[in-house]
What we know:
alpha+beta, 4 strands
Amino acid sequence: MxxxxxGYVGTLLNTFTFVKPYYQILIFxxxxxxxxxxxxxxxxxxxxxxxxxxxxxxxxxxxxxxxxNNKWRMKINPKLLILIGxxxxxxxxxxxxxxxxxxxxxxxxxxxxxxxxxxxISGT
Length: 124
């Protein structure tokens, strides 16, 4: 139990007193943004590896979307802060057959498993 030995935890907790409170708030907001960004990127990359394109990615108030020319653009919309997180919008296309349905279901299931696991394993 080296973590609790020789006062390591006390020393660690005392280091927070050296950081000004407004810096602590800024650090917290920055780390929260980074966590949500990495989580949503895990969803996005999972969809990409599964062969499904994404139409939009939302991280807090930042909206990344594909325009008509299939180029990525960014908008800032403070109304999106109500999500308190993020969202990836996959472009599944029309589902006309059982095979299309299975492909879409597999992509959604995999994405919904990979991103939370990535967040837990990475520790962000």
